[in-house]
């Protein structure tokens, strides 16, 4: 049985989880907006009002917005009564304790987040998060009953040396070894080539489809049911072409999620 076309106003977690359990059915498309370190109270209120006005009622795709931590409560309030789901950009791998500046998965659950981005390349590169740490975060998110969006992707150097699948395989295998593959029924994957994120360069449909197919092939029994997003300079003008590909189930957006018109156009292309 597959979840019908929309989420109720305040989706229960069980219902959100169901979305990734479709088997032999067209996977429901998902668009995730990663605001990164952008926004302020005034700009957020305006952006969220425009997005919620443009995305009302029954819709044929799921939409998640991941604001910076200080604005999660604001976003939660602004999204009340809409079908848009709240997510977070990162999380600590630890439960609680003397870890200044960190935020636990249970705290995010408390704030009604349903999804958490894990292993974004900006955190792997700039915060030196290791593959193992990413796996531990993945586990912590699931333990708190939330859904990890696990990002993987190769550098330009890997791509140029033809090692892109090797890199992605390594990033996935560390998580598989840590948690097993069965838990991916409650997870989302995102392919984000590092050279395409925030650069204006998008993977060609052939490049994206090759990697998505490969990632799907690594998922064993869940190959047909896990949603795999593409991320890397997706805009309104190229979204449709990417969403038409068999193994792409939506997008993880950075820049485009900060512009209501652009964001809504991409969400509508995903329906
Ligand atoms: C991202 O940050 O995950 C991303 C895909 O950014 P952009 O859309 O700006 O390339």
Q: What characteristic shape results from the CA principal axes?
A: globular
**What is the CATH T-level topology?**
TIM Barrel
Ligand roster: phosphoenolpyruvate
Helical proportion? 25-40%
Provide mean pLDDT, rounded: 91
The CATH superfamily is identified as: Aldolase class I
Structural class: alpha/beta
**What is the terminal-to-terminal distance?**
19 Å
Describe this structure in words.
- With 271 residues, this protein is an alpha/beta fold.
- The protein has a single domain, classed as TIM Barrel (Alpha-Beta Barrel), CATH 3.20.20.
- The chain contains eleven helices and eight strands.
- The protein has an eight-stranded parallel beta barrel, surrounded by six helices.
- Strand 7, helix 10 and strand 8 form a beta-alpha-beta unit.
- Helix 2 runs parallel beside helix 11 and helix 6 crosses helix 8.
- The chain starts with 12 loop residues before the first helix and ends with a helix.
- The structure holds phosphoenolpyruvate.
- The site of phosphoenolpyruvate has 14 residues, from strand 8.
Q: Which descriptors would you attach to this protein?
A:
271 residues, alpha/beta, TIM Barrel, eight-stranded parallel beta barrel, 11 helices, 39% helix, disordered N terminus, binds phosphoenolpyruvate
Offer a quick outline of the entry.
This protein has 271 residues and is an alpha/beta fold.
SSE layout:
Layout: H1 13-18, E1 30-34, H2 41-54, E2 62-66, H3 72-79, E3 85-88, H4 105-110, E4 115-118, H5 121-126, H6 131-143, E5 147-152, H7 156-160, H8 164-179, E6 188-191, H9 205-217, E7 227-231, H10 236-243, E8 250-253, H11 260-270
Helix pairs in contact: 2-3, 2-11, 6-8, 10-11
């Amino acid at each position: 049985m597959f979840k019908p076309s929309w989420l109720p106003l305040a989706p229960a977690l069980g219902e959100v989880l169901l979305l990734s359990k479709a088997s032999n059915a067209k996977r429901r498309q998902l668009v995730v907006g990663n605001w990164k370190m952008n926004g302020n109270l005034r700009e957020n209120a305006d952006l969220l009002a425009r997005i919620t006005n443009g995305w009302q009622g029954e819709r044929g795709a799921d939409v998640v917005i991941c604001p910076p931590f200080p604005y999660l409560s604001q976003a939660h309030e602004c999204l009340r009564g809409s079908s848009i789901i709240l997510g977070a950009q990162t999380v600590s791998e630890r439960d609680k304790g003397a870890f200044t500046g960190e935020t636990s998965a249970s705290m995010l659950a408390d704030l009604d987040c349903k999804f958490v981005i894990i292993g974004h390349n900006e955190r792997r590169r700039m915060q030196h998060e290791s593959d193992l740490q990413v796996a531990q975060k993945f586990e912590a998110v699931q333990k708190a009953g939330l859904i990890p969006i696990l990002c993987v992707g190769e550098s330009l150097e890997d791509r140029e040396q033809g090692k892109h699948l090797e890199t992605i395989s390594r990033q996935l295998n560390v998580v598989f070894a840590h948690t097993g593959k069965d838990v991916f029924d409650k997870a989302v994957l995102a392919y984000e080539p590092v050279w395409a994120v925030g650069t204006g360069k998008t993977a060609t449909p052939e490049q994206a489809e090759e990697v998505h197919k490969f990632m799907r092939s690594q998922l064993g029994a869940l190959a047909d049911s896990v949603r795999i997003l593409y991320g890397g300079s997706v805009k309104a003008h190229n979204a449709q072409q990417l969403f038409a590909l068999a193994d792409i189930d939506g997008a993880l957006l950075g820049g485009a999620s900060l512009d209501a018109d652009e964001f809504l156009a991409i969400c509508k292309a995903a329906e």
